[in-house]
Specification:
Blueprint: H1 21-28, E1 37-50, E2 58-73, E3 81-96, E4 102-117, E5 122-137, E6 140-158, E7 161-173, E8 179-192, H2 193-198, E9 203-210, E10 227-233, E11 239-247, E12 256-264, E13 269-274, E14 289-301, E15 304-316, E16 321-323, H3 339-358, H4 368-383, E17 386-387, H5 395-398, E18 405-407, H6 411-417, E19 419-420, H7 422-435, E20 440-445, E21 448-454, E22 474-476, E23 479-484, H8 493-507, E24 523-526, H9 527-531, H10 552-568
Parallel strand pairs: 17-19
Antiparallel strand pairs: 1-2, 1-8, 2-3, 3-4, 4-5, 5-6, 6-7, 7-8, 9-10, 10-13, 11-12, 11-14, 14-15, 16-18, 20-21, 20-24, 21-23, 22-23
Organism: Treponema primitia (strain ATCC BAA-887 / DSM 12427 / ZAS-2)
Protein name: Putative tetratricopeptide TPR_2 repeat protein
Length: 569
């Protein structure tokens, strides 16, 4: 015969959900706890009374709030991390009595919890709790103590959602002489409230360094870095499908994706070079600015898409700024489309064409490129161009310090100022030649830069001095380049060519193979090749003032005298 359980103590029913008042306030203020996690667990539950033949198994439901506020990272071989916290739980269960009626229980408990995350998606848990429960049975009710232990396992579907299973033991005080030993088994869902309410991201970013940013090279930065950033994954799991983008308002049309990465493990950091697709508005900058740029990271955490951004303050220099870390960079200042330079070159060329039509026998054996180059040189002299050394930006000093800032003039500026130092005059003369379809080149020797142009014939061409190379010409990769020392406009074209050749031959030694660093060696950089790396630009306002050209007849007289001396020599 089964023993009839008779509870002795009776008390009025109380509301166990007061246990959650503290937790409710913590959830509301959870953004203040950066490293804390607040979770809600919900699960149907099977309760099996152990060691009792009076009660049969029954079903119910359980809910719990978890606050995990202490975390420790683990060595990789032991998993991801361990978290310590507290929980407050409530449960309802109804079990049938063998004799008659049902025993219903509403319980609440508090206690510590421990979580061990062993991989991105799997976590094991252990908790211990104590509290009270209210039961109703055969018309009586009472409040009694309880205590228990629980084991759980979580499979993380998303950062905000996990599937979990639990199993545990609970001791229920029932009477002075009897207790109920309950085995609980449940399968349910765990909701990460922080992720749901505030969409937390646990990835940090910082700018490590910034390169010098020059508007004249704005197109170059699409493939070359302006800075580098470090991204650190502070999530508890690996993040995937990383996409990094850069944005500078006004000077870019849209965010530019500069890097991707398939995966970044928890606790790992990675560095990325930042590139940018600037627009031509950069060329409006006449003063340095300190720009507030934005780096944006999009990634997936356990399949959920997340986005974070952080600012990166960068200095953008004015449109004339420049460094001599690569001599080829100055090619960006050379422009065949500069309105002032194109007007100057075409005005001169038209006069030469008329001269040659009217004097078909004169200079007929001389390559046309030489004729046009000589005419441009003499026209610049008549125009009043001057070589002016800028003590604050001497090429001699700046070329020896690759990181030192220089300021170069665009072709229209040099024409407007009617002068410049060796780099300014070289940029102008190359622009004039390019405007007439004559390929030009920078020539660098230690402490100096000047120009050369393609003669337009092959070294072995019999039309050039009866098969002999043009005197003073530089032969490079099967082409003849005639050097011109542009800083002596008043000395005549012949003198400029002779001095240019002397400077080249005097430098001697090794020659640059194309890397752009001319320290201690001589180098010739064809403009077409340099433009493949550093695109030519033309700035706003270049056509506002056209140069006042010398008299055409005066230009032609100077041209004829110059070429006569050149041929005789």
């Amino acid at each position: 015969m089964k023993k009839n359980y008779k509870p002795v103590n009776h008390a009025n029913s109380i509301t166990f959900f007061l246990l959650f008042a503290l937790f409710g306030s913590l959830v509301v203020t959870s953004p203040l706890f950066a490293e804390s996690e607040f979770k809600l667990r919900l699960a149907p539950r099977l309760m099996v009374p152990a060691g009792s033949s009076y009660f049969d198994p029954g079903f119910g439901a359980a809910a719990a709030f978890d606050w995990d506020f202490l975390q420790w990272s683990l060595p990789p071989r032991l998993g991801r991390d361990v978290s310590f916290g507290v929980f407050a739980g409530a449960a309802y269960a109804s079990i049938a009595a063998a004799a008659n009626g049902n025993l219903t229980m509403i319980e609440g408990k508090l206690g510590p919890s421990l979580l061990w995350r062993i991989s991105d998606r799997l976590t094991f848990g252990l908790d211990a709790g104590a509290g009270v429960y209210n039961y109703s049975f055969n018309g009586t009710s009472a409040v009694k103590p309880l205590a228990g232990l629980g084991l759980s396992a979580y499979f993380h579907l998303l950062p905000s959602l996990s599937l979990y299973t639990e199993g545990g033991y609970t001791w229920h005080g029932f009477s002075d002489t009897q207790t109920i030993h309950g085995i609980n088994i449940g399968l349910g869902l765990s909701l990460n409230l922080g992720e749901i309410l505030w969409s937390q991201t646990r990835v940090s970013g910082e700018r490590l360094r910034q390169e010098l940013i020059f508007p004249v090279s704005f197109a170059w930065y699409e493939k070359n870095s302006i800075a580098s950033v470090r991204i650190t994954n502070n999530e508890k799991n690996a993040i995937t499908d990383l996409r990094l983008s850069f944005m500078l308002e006004r000077y870019m049309n849209q965010d530019y994706q500069f890097a991707t990465r398939t995966r970044l493990g928890p606790g790992e950091s990675a560095e990325f070079p930042v590139t940018a697709l600037f627009n031509e508005t950069m060329l409006d900058l006449t003063e340095n600015i300190n720009a507030n740029t934005r780096i944006t990271l999009e990634y997936r955490s356990l399949g959920a898409k997340k986005t974070m951004s952080f600012p990166a303050f960068m200095t953008i220099y004015h449109r004339n700024a420049f460094t001599w870390d690569d001599d080829r960079r100055a090619a960006s200042f050379v422009s065949a489309k500069d309105p002032a330079a194109a007007y100057f070159a075409n005005f001169t060329a038209q006069g030469v064409e008329r001269f040659l039509r009217e004097n078909p026998s004169r200079f007929s054996a001389t390559p046309k490129n030489i004729l046009l180059a000589a005419a441009l040189f003499e026209t610049l002299n008549l125009y009043g161009i001057n070589y002016v050394v800028d003590p604050s930006s001497s090429f001699i000093e700046l070329s020896e310090n690759a990181s030192a800032l220089d300021s170069l003039n665009y072709p229209y500026q040099t024409l407007f100022y009617r002068g410049g130092d060796c780099d300014d005059l070289s940029i102008l003369f190359c622009s004039l030649l390019e405007a007439l379809g004559i390929e030009s080149a920078f020539v660098t020797v230690p402490g100096h830069i000047y120009i050369a142009f393609d003669v337009g014939v092959l070294p072995e061409d019999d039309a050039v001095n009866k098969g002999q190379p043009v005197k003073g010409a530089i032969e490079q990769e099967g082409r003849l380049w005639l050097p011109v020392e542009i800083t002596i406009p008043h000395g005549g074209f012949l003198n400029a060519v002779e001095i240019g050749a002397q400077e080249w031959n005097g430098a001697g030694g090794a020659e640059d193979t194309g890397g752009g660093d001319q320290s201690g060696i001589r180098a010739l950089y064809p403009m077409g090749e340099s433009w493949q790396v550093y695109r030519s630009v033309s700035v706003p306002g270049a056509g506002d003032r056209m140069p006042e050209m010398p008299d055409e007849e005066e230009i032609l007289r100077a041209f004829a005298d110059s070429m006569t001396k050149f041929i005789r020599k």
